[in-house]
Specification:
Radius of gyration: 19 Å
Strand order of the largest sheet: 1-2-4-3-5-6-7-8
Shape: globular
CATH architecture: 3-Layer(aba) Sandwich
Distance between the termini: 40 Å
Order of helices and strands: HHHEEEHEHHEHEHEHEHH
Number of helices: 11
Helix content: 25-40%
Mean pLDDT: 95
Length: about 325
C-alpha cells in the first residue's frame, strides 16, 4: 500500500489551500535561503495562534559564545517554579532550517512547554546561517547550556538534570550541542529531539515521500548549504555540524526522538536512534504514521499532535 496522510492532517491541509482562482504559493528554489527566511511571517502567525501564557515568567540574559559574540537567552519560569527548590531545566533550540527562526518567533511555544510541564526553559537565540555558518549555531547552543549550568544555583536548577531539546533544525543543533558537551565534559541529562535535522546528505528525493514533503529536499539542501557551504554532502563534515556524521555515539545521554512517517528526516532519525541504542544508550523512538514534517504545527488539535505533545510532556516531567 502507498503512504497516505493522517485523516485529520489531510483535512487541516485542505482548509489551508488557496481559494479558487488564487495561485498556489511559490516554493523557494534550491539555494534560495533568502526565500526560506522570508517565510518567517508564517512562523510568527503560527506562534501567535498559541496561548500567550502570561503566567510564565520571562527574563532575557546574554552570554558570550565561543568567538565572543553576544547571544540572547530567554529564561521561562512556570508559575509554580520555586528557585529555592532545585529541579530540572531545559535548553531549547528553535526550528527554522538553519536559516530562519528566533527566540521571539517561538516564544509562545516555549512558554507553553514550560507552563504545561512545570519545567523552566532556556531558549537560545542562536545565530543563523549563512551569515553565521558552522560552527556558530551549534556553539551558541552549547554556550546556552554552559550559561545555564553556571547559573544553576541561583535559578534553582540541578546541573545534573539539564536536558537539551529542539525541533527540526533545532533538534539537529540540540544533538550537536550534546556531542560538544560530551567532548567538553559538561553533563546533559537527556536529549529531546523532535523531527531533528541530522544529515546534510538528505538532498536526493525519495519518490514515495516527495508528495508529502512539507520541508522539501530542495529546502534541505538550501539549509545545509547555508550552514556548511561547499562542504555539504562531502567527506569532511564533522559530527558536531551534522550529527548523523558522528562515528562514535557512545557515552551520550538518553534520547527521545520522534518523527513523522512522511517526513524526509524519517530515515536519518530512525538510523540515529538505532545507532544510539546500539551503544547501550536508552532511546525512546516514535514514528508517527501519516505525518509529514511539523505535523503538530499544521494541526495542533489533531489526535496525533495531542499524543505527540503528551509524550513530550511526559518526558519533560521525568527529568
Amino acid at each position: 500500500m502507498s503512504y497516505a496522510l493522517d485523516t485529520q492532517l489531510r483535512q487541516a491541509l485542505a482548509a489551508m489551500r488557496p481559494a479558487e482562482g488564487e495561485p498556489p504559493p511559490r516554493r523557494p528554489v534550491r539555494g534560495d535561503w533568502e526565500a526560506l527566511r522570508a517565510g518567517e511571517s508564517g512562523l510568527a502567525a503560527l506562534d501567535a495562534m498559541k496561548p500567550a501564557q502570561p503566567s510564565v515568567g520571562r527574563a532575557d540574559h546574554h552570554v558570550a559564545s565561543h568567538d565572543g559574540a553576544e547571544i540572547l537567552l530567554r529564561w521561562y519560569t512556570p508559575a509554580a517554579h520555586d528557585p529555592s527548590a532545585v529541579g530540572p531545566a531545559v535548553v531549547y533550540l528553535h526550528g527554522g532550517g538553519m536559516v530562519s527562526g528566533s527566540v521571539a518567533l517561538f516564544d509562545r511555544l516555549v512558554a507553553g512547554y514550560a507552563a504545561d510541564s512545570g519545567v523552566p526553559f532556556l531558549s537560545v537565540d542562536y545565530r543563523r546561517a549563512p551569515e553565521h555558518p558552522h560552527p556558530a549555531p551549534a556553539e551558541d547552543g552549547f554556550a546556552g547550556l554552559t550559561w545555564l549550568a553556571g547559573h544553576a544555583a541561583e535559578l534553582g536548577v540541578d546541573p545534573a538534570r539539564i536536558a537539551l531539546m529542539g525541533e527540526s533544525a533545532g533538534g539537529g543543533l540540540a544533538a550537536a550541542a550534546t556531542l560538544l558537551a560530551r567532548t567538553r565534559g559538561l553533563p546533559v541529562a537527556r536529549q529531546i529531539l523532535v523531527y531533528p535535522m541530522l544529515d546534510d546528505r538528505t538532498t536526493e528525493p525519495d519518490p514515495a515521500l516527495l508528495p508529502f514533503a512539507m520541508w522539501s529536499y530542495d529546502d534541505n539542501h538550501t539549509g545545509w548549504h547555508a550552514l556548511l557551504g561547499d562542504a555539504v554532502g562531502g567527506p569532511d563534515v564533522p559530527g558536531h555540524a551534522a550529527p548523523a556524521r558522528e562515528e562514535d555515539l557512545s557515552g551520550l545521554p538518553p534520547a527521545y526522538i520522534e518523527v513523522g512517517e512522511l517526513d524526509i528526516f524519517r530515515d536519518e532519525d530512525v538510523a540515529y536512534a538505532r545507532r544510539l541504542a546500539a551503544t547501550g544508550t536508552s532511546v525512546e523512538l516514535h514514528v508517527h504514521p501519516g505525518c509529514p514534517h511539523a505535523f503538530d504545527h499544521l494541526a495542533p488539535g489533531s489526535d496525533v499532535a495531542r499524543r505527540a505533545r503528551a509524550d513530550r510532556l511526559r518526558v519533560l516531567a521525568g527529568l
